[in-house]
Design brief:
The complex is a heterodimer. By secondary structure, chain A is α/β, with parallel strands linked by helices. In chain A, 47% of the residues lie in helices and 14% in strands. In chain A, strands 5-4-3-2-1-9-8-7-6 form a nine-stranded parallel beta sheet. The relative contact order of chain A is 0.18. Helix content of chain B is 42%, strand content 18%. In chain B, strand 9, helix 11 and strand 10 form a beta-alpha-beta unit. In chain B, helix 9 packs across helix 11 and helix 10 crosses helix 11. Chain B is built from 16 helices and 14 strands. By secondary structure, chain B is an alpha/beta fold. In chain B, the strands form three sheets. Chain B has a six-stranded mixed beta sheet with strand order 3-4-14-9-10-13, with helices on both faces. Classes of the chains: A alpha/beta, B alpha/beta. Chains A and B meet through helix 3, helix 5 and strand 6 of A and strand 2, helix 1, helix 8, strand 11 and strand 12 of B.
């Protein structure tokens, strides 16, 4: 059992929380997320050109790089997190160039040494898996793929091939932090994905409130929240941990109890 | 030179790779679109009606074939090889960009897309895109870095006159790469109805190949014109390179003519020894950006650095992947010239031939001025004069200390 598979075999759905590394006090922000009930952490690797992200995460990337965050810093945040939280799955999320800059083997080794469980690379689709996937799998790190509303039935098997950890369903065709998809389309998509894979399915993009998270948790194995948390980091700076804890607690409660309410 | 290859004209492979370069590094949302685009492009390539419409528009709307011009006074002044120009600056809209825009908008309509988006740096690609959108009655959104909007106000006005909506991009450094990021963000959110007309031979496959093929009309014409005018091929081809579409358009039809040497000219800005340049091949290293693996200006962590050039059209931190491959294969030689040298090249052409060139091909002129004197008088240099300089007179005046 990996940390990810253990987490997703819990009796309740998982809350997956994203923040950008190096944006504020990263260690304190991560601890706040875990203490408030986050089940999986996605740590964003800042990049100068975050093409798939909306304004909130773009700004977080620029704040982080402006503060001088390096790849070594991101790996150190991961290493320290692993020392403090031995059981909480940690996923690095970002863009290809910072990940392959020193070679995929270097990155996979460094991530493994830091105790990272999975990697989401936004701009490496299955067609370019050679650029990173084999190196990650060789080190026991899950390459976590994205499925989207444009991923049709003919294409889905290719996305699933070599996918590990969980499948991240991007519920809207668009960038992060924008509008949420209608619930019915999410339910239909999750059912379709789960019919094709044994991997847990987590749903993200545009999820901001406990109510939205609860609705998704009724059908999905995980709910990903990013921009709403990243906005708190941007707005509150050093005071962010307390605010992060507040929102994360509400989200965690909503996600963890979503199915109890359903059956009650 | 790599002698294992039978041909330099068979790239990319079926995955869009030029050796280790190129590819399709895009988000999953775009991947089905990119595959669909490739299918539709292959079908269009096989359809004589598509090619016929493209050729007809190039002839009657763009004004092709562009002349092949022997430049006697610059030849005399340089005192070496004969200097010839492919006059793509005489195209409608004043640059080679329109060739590609005609091809892509025909493809967009064939695919049933009803909305066009594009990025632009100096504004030439934006103007060309706005032009074809007006011609075919499609709504057009142009993303342009806020810095470039300020620097290139005449082109912004041209695009608006042509009916385009120009959206200033304030993220990042607010220049061309940021405009391209914003174009990709728009596309990913509007995949159902939107076609993204990329302006250079870069981006995810099939763009680099497709843009090259649409621009290859330049080299095909030039090759035939040379054979008909002087009965032989040139000894050296020269073209400037930002993303590299005008250079590939000239070079590609000649790649298997082993006796024809080729020189690509990057922008050295304030010099290659510092970081104020836009020479991705000579001063960068391989990485992944905007859908392809290619040479990039980047730091040791893979963060993209801002280029600099006097020419907004060359001021991009990447380069088309086929150039990266042509460099590594040794088939094409690459050099770089500084802002100051380009400014001298600009004035040289104005003074000797009565042609005001854009600052982009002024870089190529500067390279010709260095290399032509070292060549025998019976040799031939053919340079792609890919754009005219009307848009640049304010920049040049400022650099020369003239108040308009």
């Amino acid at each position: 059992m990996t940390r990810l598979s253990t987490t997703f075999s819990a009796p309740h759905p998982a809350l997956v929380c994203f923040i950008t590394a190096g944006d504020g006090d990263t260690a304190a922000n991560l601890d706040a997320l875990v203490e408030a009930g986050a089940d999986v952490i996605e740590l964003g690797m800042p990049f100068t050109d975050p093409m798939a992200d909306g304004p909130a995460i773009q700004s977080a990337n620029l704040r982080s790089l402006g503060a001088g965050t390096t790849t070594a810093d991101v790996l150190r945040y991961a290493t320290d997190f692993r020392a403090r939280h031995p059981d909480v799955p940690l996923v690095l999320m970002g863009y290809a160039n910072p990940m392959v800059r020193r070679g995929p083997e270097w990155f996979a080794q460094a991530a493994a040494d830091a105790g990272v469980d999975g990697v989401i690379c936004v701009d490496i689709p299955p067609e370019e898996d050679d650029a990173l996937g084999p190196a990650l799998r060789a080190k026991g790190i899950a390459p976590i793929r994205l499925a989207t509303p444009t991923t049709d039935a003919a294409r889905l098997p290719q996305v699933l091939e070599g996918s590990q950890g969980f499948l991240y369903y991007v519920s809207v065709a668009g960038i992060t932090g924008k509008q949420q998809a209608v619930q019915a389309s999410i339910e239909e998509a999750v059912a379709r994905l789960k019919a094709s894979t044994d991997l847990p399915v987590a749903v993200g993009f545009g999820v901001r409130t406990p109510e939205q998270a609860a609705a998704i948790a009724k059908v999905a194995d995980g709910v990903v929240v990013g921009s709403a948390l990243v906005e708190i980091c941007g707005e509150y700076g050093a005071a962010a941990p307390a605010k992060l804890k507040e929102l994360t607690s509400a989200l965690a409660h909503a996600v963890h109890t979503a199915r109890q309410e359903q059956t009650a | 030179m790599n002698t294992h290859l039978n041909s330099f004209r068979t790239q990319p492979d079926d995955r869009g790779h030029f050796g280790q370069f190129g590819g399709r590094y895009v988000a999953e949302t775009l991947m089905p679109l990119v595959l669909d685009l490739e299918r539709e492009y292959r079908a269009a390539q096989a359809d004589p009606a598509f090619q016929a419409e493209f050729d007809d528009l190039l002839e009657h709307y763009v004004g092709r074939p562009s002349p092949l011009y022997f430049a006697p006074r610059i030849t005399e002044e340089l005192g070496g090889a004969q200097v010839w120009f492919k006059r793509d600056e005489l195209n409608h809209t004043g640059a080679h960009k329109i060739n590609n825009c005609i091809g892509q908008i025909l493809l967009a309509m064939r695919m049933g897309k009803t909305r066009i988006i594009a990025e632009t740096g100096a504004g030439q690609h934006g103007v060309a895109t706005a032009t074809v959108c007006a011609r075919f009655g499609l709504p057009c959104v142009i993303y342009m870095g806020a810095e470039d909007v300020a620097r290139q106000s005449p082109n912004v006005f041209r695009m608006k006159l042509l009916g385009a909506e120009v959206i200033p991009v304030t993220s990042g450094g607010a220049t061309l790469k940021d405009a391209m990021n914003e174009g990709l963000r728009d596309w990913v959110a509007n995949v159902h109805d939107t076609f993204y007309i990329i302006g250079t031979a870069a981006g995810p496959h099939p763009y680099p190949e497709m843009v090259r093929n649409f621009q290859s009309v330049i080299g095909k014409e030039a090759r035939a014109q040379m054979l008909s005018r002087v009965g032989r091929l040139p000894d050296l081809l020269v073209a400037c390179i930002g993303g590299g579409s005008n250079a590939l358009g000239l070079f590609h039809p000649f790649l298997d003519d082993a006796d024809v040497k080729m020189l690509g000219v990057e922008a050295a800005g304030h010099g290659l020894d510092g970081d104020q340049h836009a020479a991705s091949l000579l001063g960068g290293s391989p990485g992944v950006l905007h859908g392809n693996r290619t040479y990039l200006l980047q730091d040791e962590d893979g963060q993209i650095t801002e280029g600099h050039s006097i020419s907004a059209g060359l001021d991009y931190p990447g380069i088309g992947p086929e150039h990266a491959w042509l460099k590594e294969s040794g088939r094409v030689e690459y050099t770089a010239v500084t802002d100051d040298e380009a400014l001298e090249g600009f004035q040289l052409l104005c003074r000797t031939e009565g042609i005001i060139p854009a600052l982009e091909p002024s870089h190529a002129i500067a390279a010709v001025a260095k290399v032509a004197p070292t060549m025998p008088k019976d040799s031939i240099v053919l340079m792609n004069l890919c754009g005219r300089g009307d848009k640049d007179i304010f920049t040049v005046a400022e650099k020369l200390g003239v108040e308009l």
